[in-house]
Amino acid sequence: MTSFFATTVPVADALWNAPKTYLGMGLDWQAEQDNWLQKFVVSHKNPSIALAATLNPEELASIASNTCQLVNDFLKAKGFNIQLQDQGPSNMLYAASVLKLLGEFLAGGETDYRLREIGKPAFRLGREAKVKHFDFNGQRVVVIPTNGGFSLLVTRPTGVVGFRMLDDWTNILHTMKPTRGNGVLLPMAKIDEVGIDVKDLCGMFAEDWIVQEALMAAKFALTPKSVRFEAAFAYSARKGMTMEKLPQIGDYVADHALYFALVKRNHWLPLAAGMVDVEDLSSIVVNS
Predict the structure, then answer these.
(1) What value does the mean pLDDT take over residues 41-51?
(2) Does this model's pTM top 0.90?
(3) What CATH number matches the domain at 110-187, 3.90.320, 1.20.58, 2.30.39, 1.25.40?
(4) How far apart are CA 236 and CA 95, in angstroms?
(5) Which of 95, 149, 154, 264 has the fewest CB atoms below 10 angstroms from its CB?
(6) Are 204 and 32 in contact (CB under 8 A)?
């Protein structure tokens, strides 16, 4: 599978909204210093939660519990196969959120078209579907409204994949300008479930909670009548783990084999020098 999908809405909903019901309080999730995905999710928290607030319970639903089976049953009931590992109820939080978007086009598409360059069948949406055309740096962007309260936007791939697609489309939306056009020919697709790699979210921390496992999957369908997108995000977090302290600004991090010298003041020749291989560095805290 070489297709990519991304959404921060169910991620933010599960991390920040879901625990409020179960714990009676929100968790202030923070990112590790050098973790791009964690920083991305935290930086997109507010617009993601704002989007979540516009959706009804059929479009976005979440659950949180210290019982893993309840969350896994929720995922199954919502039509997803991803399942969290049960690590028991003690000091554990399991949570999940499922996003389901369905938008029917304002007029059905005509079939019996073909996309010759890629050799795939297509359907056409015309003026009656309220199709609008835009230009983005010489590249055509097509906007197709739906009755689901959102529009489908399509353009040629820019080379960006993964969660960076969200910022790429934000840039397109800010930059594109209206231009003349007619209808649009689109391919058809039906992807039942594909995993989204979010394992880098493991290690996110809030107070004395830390994410242990993170799973995500998405579904997508594009037909002459509608566009459908679904995504599920689930995670487990443990309370009471010892938190690693993060380096402070300006710290040098000796994250490598240890090359050292012991030097006496006013002498150019070291008393001693050495290089300790990574394999020989201690795996436990040495106090003396």
Answers:
(1) 95
(2) no
(3) 2.30.39
(4) 6
(5) 264
(6) yes
Largest CA distance in the chain: 86
**Tell me, what DSSP letter sits at residue 14?**
I
Alpha helices in 3-145 (DSSP H): 9-12, 18-23, 36-43, 45-52, 68-77
Q: What are phi and psi of 205, to 5 degrees?
A: -135, 150
Three-state DSSP at 91 gives coil
Q: How far apart are CA 74 and CA 63, in angstroms?
A: 8
Give Cα 39 distance to the centre of its chain: 11
Query: Rounded CA gap, 192 and 131, in Å?
Result: 27
- The percentage of the chain sitting over the pLDDT mark of 70, rounded to a whole number, equals 91
Strand partners, 227: 103, 222
Q: List b or e across 160-194, with b for residues whose CB sees 16 or more CB atoms inside 10 angstroms.
A: eeebebbebbeebeeebeeeeeebbebeeeeeeee
Structure tokens at 278: 């990574």
DSSP, res 80: -
